[in-house]
């Protein structure tokens, strides 16, 4: 006998936020019902009883806590998860006393939300862990093997179809522009343009007109009108890179555009309606910038509906060798092998410049490599020296080398299509030693999962 999927009522006055949450809930195999206000939610509850309610705290009319109180007057068992953009421990206590099962803050951690929904609805772990990104096309330059990147892609797959602002964070060189491009490609705006603007490179005297446009004669040198980046991205997406560099005086204007969709060009008393999805990126800690008074807190909460944090390369060593092979093939125009010593150099190096540094290193190696095998001497000197001696690495980076070694073994085994003899030869160890190492890796995995 078929069992109807669980139904979740999503209550939020922001349509794009409902779209985001709804898309994610559907990946868990649930049906959704939406309401844009507390009053509408209460009316919906008179017509059907969902299995769970996701309830935003800040609502027009009666707010989320008042709505929750009304729900509890008639139904003490219905699971309710409160969501707010302003995390406040005191409000969490009030929510708990009012009968909320859980309290989540924005930007929504989708993994945390998944666990909360699955726990309360007793969804199977297998069904809830299906990858939302499975089967979606990736750009040629996006190469990954690490679990952290898989989780990032799954989040992108859920976020991309909505119109909510996205904040991409990460160190310089981690590939924030690539992630922004993927969000646009997987969105419903892919037919429109993706415009990129770097706030750090725009002159402070011109940044307002560059972003919002200007009329002819608006200021000295304005010989003709300019539409600006927001209008150029109409119907598509706008990437504002290094948004932490945006002057404080212009931040209220950006906030108004995000709230109203109206752009006011410099020198004009008229507003222009735009339909532009904002993707922001930064290598700064914006929370610290807010605390220091250099970034408005209301703008921070507005752009940080979803945060996509890209880990530095040193924290995802499984990606180093696949990326290196990809870049080497790109520059050489053919598959290029790396000696075990060269692979070890790549894995031990800390990569402060992240993917950008790795790409440059492989470009250099391909220029210097006369044959088909990249050796340590083909790599930049600081990378070639990074490995040092085995004893030195074991003493100066405890635990790190084993992680790097694990990544090298698994990557080489995959490259050899599972052939242990070939993999052992490439790694410069005996087949028996490789088998022992694989057994250790499997035992470690079982221990972590146990």
Would you identify the CATH architecture of the largest domain?
3-Layer(aba) Sandwich
Identify low-pLDDT runs. Answer: 389-401
Question: Helical segment tally?
Answer: 21
CATH level 1 name of the largest domain: Alpha Beta
Count the beta strands.
Answer: 14
CATH topology of the largest domain: Rossmann fold
Determine the N-to-C terminus distance. 34 Å
Mean pLDDT: 86
Explain this structure to me?
The chain has helices spanning 15-27, 38-47, 64-74, 89-98, 110-121, 125-128, 147-159, 176-185, 207-212, 228-232, 251-260, 286-291, 297-303, 320-332, 340-348, 354-368, 381-384, 390-396, 400-415, 420-427, 431-449, and strands at residues 7-11, 31-35, 52-56, 80-84, 102-105, 166-169, 194-198, 237-241, 262-263, 272-273, 277-282, 306-309, 337-338, 373-374. The strands form 4 sheets. A 5-stranded parallel sheet has the order 2-1-3-4-5, with helices on both faces. Strands 7-8-11-6-12 form a 5-stranded parallel sheet. Strands 9-10 form a two-stranded antiparallel ribbon. The protein is built from 21 helices and 14 strands. Strand 9 (262-263) and strand 10 (272-273) form a beta hairpin. It folds into 3 domains: 7-128, Response regulator (Rossmann fold); 147-311, Rossmann fold, CATH 3.40.50; 314-449, Orthogonal Bundle (Helicase, Ruva Protein, domain 3). The chain is α/β, with parallel strands linked by helices and 450 residues long.
């Amino acid at each position: 006998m078929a069992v109807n999927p669980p139904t979740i009522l999503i209550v939020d006055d922001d349509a794009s936020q409902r779209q985001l949450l709804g898309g994610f809930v559907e990946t868990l195999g649930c049906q959704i019902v939406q309401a844009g206000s507390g009053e509408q939610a209460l009316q919906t509850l008179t017509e059907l009883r969902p299995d769970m309610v996701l309830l935003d705290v800040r609502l027009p009319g009666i707010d989320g806590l008042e709505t929750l109180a009304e729900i509890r007057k008639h139904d003490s068992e219905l699971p309710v998860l409160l969501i707010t953009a302003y995390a406040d421990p005191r409000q969490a206590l009030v929510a708990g006393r009012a009968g909320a099962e859980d309290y989540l803050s924005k930007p929504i951690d989708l993994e945390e939300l998944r666990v909360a929904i699955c726990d309360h609805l007793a969804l199977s772990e297998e069904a809830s862990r299906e990858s939302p990104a499975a089967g979606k096309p990736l750009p040629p330059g996006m190469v990954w093997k690490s679990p952290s990147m898989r989780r990032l892609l799954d989040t992108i797959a859920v976020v991309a179809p909505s119109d909510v602002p996205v904040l991409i964070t990460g160190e310089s060189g981690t590939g924030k522009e690539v992630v922004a491009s993927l969000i646009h490609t997987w969105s419903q705006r892919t037919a429109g343009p993706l415009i990129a603007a770097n706030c750090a490179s725009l002159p402070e005297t011109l940044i307002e007109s560059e972003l919002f446009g200007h009329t002819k004669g608006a200021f000295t040198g304005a010989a003709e009108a300019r539409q600006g980046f927001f209008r150029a991205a109409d119907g598509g997406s706008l990437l504002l890179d290094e948004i932490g560099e945006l002057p404080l005086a212009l931040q209220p204007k950006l906030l108004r555009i995000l709230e109203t969709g109206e752009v006011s060009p410099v020198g004009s008393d008229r507003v222009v309606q735009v339909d532009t999805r904002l993707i922001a990126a930064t290598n700064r800690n914006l929370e610290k910038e807010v605390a220091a008074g250099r970034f408005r807190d209301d703008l921070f909460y507005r752009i940080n509906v979803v945060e996509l944090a890209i880990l530095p390369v040193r924290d995802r060593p499984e990606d180093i060798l696949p990326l290196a092979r990809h870049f080497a093939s790109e520059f050489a125009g053919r598959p290029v092998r790396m000696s075990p010593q060269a692979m070890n150099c790549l894995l031990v190096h800390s990569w402060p410049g992240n993917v950008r540094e790795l790409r440059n290193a492989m470009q250099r190696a391909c220029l210097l490599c006369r044959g088909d095998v990249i050796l340590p001497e083909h790599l930049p000197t600081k990378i070639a020296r990074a490995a040092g001696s085995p004893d030195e690495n074991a003493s100066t980076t405890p635990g790190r080398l084993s992680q790097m070694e694990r990544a090298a073994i698994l990557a080489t085994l995959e490259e050899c299509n599972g052939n242990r003899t070939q993999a052992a030869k490439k790694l410069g160890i005996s087949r028996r030693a490789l088998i022992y190492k694989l057994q250790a890796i499997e035992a470690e995995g079982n221990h972590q999962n146990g």
